[in-house]
Amino acid sequence: MRRFSWFNATSLALGLAFLYLPILILVVYSFNESRLVTVWGGFSTKWYGELFRNEQFLEAAWVTLRVALVSATVATVLGTLAAYALVRAGRFRGRTLFSGMIYAPLVMPEVITGLSLLLLFISIGMDRGIVTITLAHITFGMCFASVVVSSRLVAFDASLEEAACDLGCTPVQAFFSVTLPVITPAIVAAWLLAFTLSLDDLVIASFTSGPGATTLPMKIYSQVRLGVTPEINALSTLLIGVVALGVVAASLAGKRMEGRADP
Amino acid sequence: MTRTPGQRLLVALPYLWLLVLFLAPFLIVLKISLSDLAVARPPYMPQFDLSEGWAGVAAFVDALDVENYVFLAEDSLYINAYLSSLRIAAISTVITLLIGYAIAYALARAPRRWRPTLVMLVILPFWTSFLIRVYAWIGILKTEGLLNQALLSVGLIGEPLTILNTNTAVYIGIVYSYLPFMVLPVYATLEKMDESLLEAAADLGSSRLAAFFLVTLPLSLPGVLAGCFLVFIPAIGEFVIPDLLGGSETLMIGKTLWVEFFNNRDWPLASAVAIVLLALLIVPIVLFQRQQMRQEIGT
């Protein structure tokens, strides 16, 4: 085992500083008394107060939360099925097309996905709003979910499922009593990923939403175009805090579950 | 393995979903890109009318033309936007690779018990909102922003630099936002690498630098390749970063498409822009998918 060199320690420290400084600065300036966002005017939490009195923000947050909860849940179910099909179903007709449709959305520019979904909804005469945003989010969320779950499924020995079947389990029973406990951490991670991607999406939501359905990123974007404001800093800080807590909690829970699943 | 109806359903459900909500929309975009702009709702023609039977279909096909594509090819604005997107994405990918490789290498060499925490620290910013992370840079990069204040107070520069609303700001934004996509795949290949190979190289008289270029780098190529795809492809169509950090000199096709659609309301032309962009991306996307499949079989 070689020791951790100064060169490596420095590049790691610089890399982490690059990743975290902008976020840190944003958080610090959300507590700035002054409306001028680059001049420090003393500590204050007044922008958080302003934020909670702003009904447009609250309403947009509620829309975003509902879309994210529903879309992440459906996307995780579909994504797990897709992962199962990719890893366990062997060769079936159209497998190449299927895997292509799973991987393509991961790198597809959002403007193309957004535009194409919007034109689909219009051509089948569907009213745009929360429902269309949710359908769009399910579609890209399931692709990310399926990649996360399939990486876990690949590592899991299929002969355990076969053994369960030999001992008289139906395939469904084998899935719920053997496979599911092992891939649960991956499923939780997949749900969280789909959830945050949905919370975060601006471009696809802008294309697929209609009058009356404004998500939080759309609201933030329209404000940000007018310049940096302390309210947006405060809102960003809250979102960062929630996500950081969620991810840390999930990883701790995941570790505990994994500890139980792998004896 | 025999297939039960249940297993068929397992495959069919996600398959059908993707066919309807991923593949079909592209065919619609293709169709509309061949249509003409119309002052109507929806703002394009011809409309597909099944009630007229085959005559309707024939009339519909007749009315389609490649006019929008001819327009794209003749107007230098669009060609320049495509080329400039490719250039900005390529330059950003190279910078991301250099920074990302250094971080991934350091992660893989860190003491084993620190690694999970360090990897999580690299991933954590990726979980927070993309929009917010791009927005954070506005306050740092603008003329009276924090970077200029810091540089001025140290005396490194005499007057504020203009960084916001230039291509430099776009590079910074892309590198910053996509860095975890590069670090993770490269780290995954470096971590799996057998360290005794490096000892063998040293025993055979190779210097540490030579061992890096002859052993480590070639072995990490699959991760480098995956990382480059994950950065390069989405960066080409990026909208938020050039819109918030870029300026008038920044020409990127994702933004052009957005303006064509939302500001000019020219849906057929926006569709043609999307189809050409997709045609440009199809080669890297297929290569990426192949590489992912190979990785999956390999593990």
Commentary on this structure:
- The complex is a heterodimer of chains A (263) and B (299).
- Chain A is mostly helical and 263 residues long.
- Chain A has a single domain (55-261), classed as MetI-like (MetI-like fold, Orthogonal Bundle).
- Chain A has helices at 6-29, 46-53, 55-88, 95-107, 110-123, 130-155, 158-166, 171-200, 203-208, 216-224, 230-261.
- By secondary structure, chain B is mainly α.
- Chain B has helices at 5-33, 53-63, 67-74, 76-109, 115-127, 130-141, 146-154, 167-192, 196-203, 208-219, 221-236, 240-245, 253-263, 267-298, and strands at 36-37, 44-45.
- In chain B, strand 1 (36-37) and strand 2 form a beta hairpin.
- The longest helix of chain B has 34 residues, at 76-109.
- At the A-B interface, helix 1, helix 3, helix 4, helix 5 and helix 6 of A face helix 1, helix 4, helix 5, helix 6 and helix 8 of B.
Instruction: Just name the CATH architecture of chain B.
Output: Orthogonal Bundle
CATH-assigned fold name of chain A: MetI-like fold
Fraction in beta strands of chain A: under 5%
Oligomer: heterodimer
Largest sheet of chain A: none
Q: So what's the CATH class of chain B?
A: Mainly Alpha
**Helix share bin of chain B:** over 70%
Percent of residues in beta strands of chain B: under 5%
- Rg of chain A, please? 22 Å
Question: Terminal Cα separation of chain A, in Å?
Answer: 28 Å
Mean pLDDT of chain B: 85
| Helix/sheet category of chain B | mainly alpha
**Count of helical segments of chain B?**
14
Q: Rg of chain B to the nearest angstrom?
A: 25 Å
Q: Helices and strands of chain A, in N-to-C order? A: HHHHHHHHHHH
Topology-level CATH name of chain B: MetI-like fold
What are the low-pLDDT stretches of chain B, counting only 5+ consecutive residues below 50?
none
The structural domain count of chain B equals: 1
Number-wise, the strands of chain A total: 0
Query: Strand order, biggest sheet of chain B?
Result: 1-2
